[in-house]
Amino acid sequence: MKKTKNPEVAEVTEENKMAISVGKVAGALGKGLFAGLIGTAAITVSQSIEMILTDREPSTIPADAAAKVLGIQPIDDEKKPALANEVHWLYGTSWGIFRGLLGAMGVKGISATLLHFAAIYGGALTIQPSLDLAPPVKEWNMQTIITEGIHHFFYSLVAGSVYDAIDKNPAESEGAASTMS
Fold it and tell me: Does residue 180 form part of some domain?
């Protein structure tokens, strides 16, 4: 039986290998940003529940960090919580880029989730003190360390689950569907 070429499938040549690689990375970054957005929604819910339970006010540290790093200032003090919320969403969503890079390198599942968590929580433990917005971690109480760890692990778990769910190989899905019929 003679095989015929499918005109919709391009032959892989040296010339288009680079385009395939760039496309793979771009796709992974896009998926990562989406996963980061959903992860940010998850940590926002987690923090909102914790604030209700502990009677804690929302933090304005994201706005303070933006002021120090980017020189961005709210128009007035009443706008500071809104700026903090915007920075929170941008920062959390952008962490999805790291998850996307892990996926592009072939790191998947729980391994990627744990690496993502380590990077995010490590950043949380060091960025605020390095900007003089919080005391060094060694001065934090255990409840704060655990609470922040839970929030950031929840973010990583949700973002990782979303990334892995949307990063399925279409050929795998088609194969699974054809074996079910």
Answer: no
Is there a domain that residue 9 lies in? no
Q: What string of DSSP letters covers 90-127?
A: HHHHHHHHHHHHHHHTT--HHHHHHHHHHHHHHHHHHH
Instruction: Choose among 167, 26, 29, 161: nearest CA to 95.
Output: 29
- Could you tell me the end-to-end alpha-carbon distance of the chain, in angstroms, rounded to an integer? 26
* Residue-wise pLDDT tens digits, 75-92: 888 889 999 999 999 999
Is 135 in contact with 175 (CB distance < 8 Å)? Answer: no
**Residue 44: count of CB within 10 angstroms of its CB:** 16
Q: Look at residue 1 and tell me if it is in a domain.
A: no
The amino acid at residue 165 is: A
Give me the number of domains the chain comprises.
1
Question: What is the pTM assigned to this prediction?
Answer: 0.81
Give the domain range for residue 151.
Answer: 16-166
